[in-house]
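User: For my dataset I need records formatted as: sequence, then structure tokens, nothing else. Please produce one.
Assistant:
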Amino acid sequence: MTRVLIADDNQDVRKTLRSFLDAMSGVEVCGESRSGYETIEAALSLKPDLIVLDVVMPKLNGIETASILKKVLPATKIVLFTMYDDYVQGLASTAGVDLVVSKPDGIAPLIGAVKTVLHEAAGETQISTH
């Protein structure tokens, strides 16, 4: 079972992501967070396999949060789900983000990214940027 932490300051986005991720086989949403600090605290406590992370959040943005998380939980995969995919691509890579997925493209690419991470974790394929 792959444990997923959802990090987004928008409650509706978190609720939607949770409903889709909960429906996936082999995925358990282990928690949700609303800010960068809250995400770091939750990740350290819950030790998720995957974090779906927004860029624009209070206290610490998603890039700063990802950078910290990759230092303390290097095996945890991070998918950045953002409105600003083109703008943050280089920063995301430097921060250790595994995939960047555009929110305007909808939920299907995110589900595909989660599946990619699941397959990669099982050694079936290599992670690439979407």
